[in-house]
């Protein structure tokens, strides 16, 4: 006998309990709902990085590039894609503290740098600005043009740390000096790397960025020892966050790297290494890499650009640099890529433009958890089409 009431249409037996058929139906419904909820949980965790990120085999957490998500991270390190040639521009944010290391290779490119910074630096203040050395591909963005404001004139730059000596000459360098002096006249403090290391005239060797994060100016001999190599004058910076160390060496070449190691014997393993001199053959020497054993390497360059050489394997990042880095990690990422064609008139290759490889690369760490964000392709260098076409796969990467 079936009993029903106004609130249910399921079948009841004489004891007032569900019939076997309806118990089976309800079990199936509960199982289906549970499966759907479990699937949603797994997918949510998958895309939020709970299970190692969308691309778990990459060994990092891939998240959609999202300004709000990045801004909420405790520490973020941004490697900006530069246009107009190879160059460095690295932005670091810790809470309300903003740090800029170099400003890119283009006077006009100061506008795109500022457009990027304004997403995160909302108060118009850069607490720390580091100019690593005197080459234009690191300084131009500080200057700007008569139409495009440079970084120094756009922002309130509180503390400027720069190279201790330089051989630089030319219009960009002179314009940098004027723009820097104008910023000092407006109240900025300016120190050389050597003054920081010696803690002279108010300079500090270690700066507190907040939230337990520090910025240390690392001593190396060429802050005061004469050298004909401008790149070896580069300011070297270590950002430390708990057990993690993030290393920035500008365009330091092999002699400078040797000095850096000799003067910082306890530098130890680094979580992130900004590939020296855009991934050139003269930087990222084996002694340095063996000492720091980087887990991640980000290279600020225009991959394959023939700006400096016609030798394809010597364009940035060079095959030599890649072979050395491959001994320690395959987590190698590159910001930009060149469009290269053969000029039939003179039989030489030429750059016709640039596009993103990984694009703007953002490395973050919150509560010890590392994540990476990319404005373009999220592939490791070895998995990009550019690499497959233009480089030889190192043996260490062939089994991964």
**Biggest sheet descriptor:** 9 strands, mixed
**What top-tier CATH class of the largest domain fits best?**
Alpha Beta
Span from first to last CA? 67 Å
Mean pLDDT, as a whole number? 90
- The number of distinct helices, counting runs of at least 4 residues, comes to 12
Gross geometry: globular
Structural class: alpha/beta
CATH superfamily caption of the largest domain: Ribonuclease Z/Hydroxyacylglutathione hydrolase-like
CATH fold annotation of the largest domain: Metallo-beta-lactamase, Chain A
- Report the oligomer: single chain
SSE run: HEHEEEHEHHEHEHEEEEHEHEHEEEEHH
Low-confidence stretches: 1-8, 46-61
Number of separate structural domains: 2
Radius of gyration over C-alpha positions, nearest whole angstrom: 26 Å
Helix content: 25-40%
Q: Biggest sheet: strands side by side, in what order?
A: 1-17-16-2-3-4-5-6-7
Strand segment tally: 17
CATH second-level architecture of the largest domain: 4-Layer Sandwich
Strand content: 25-35%
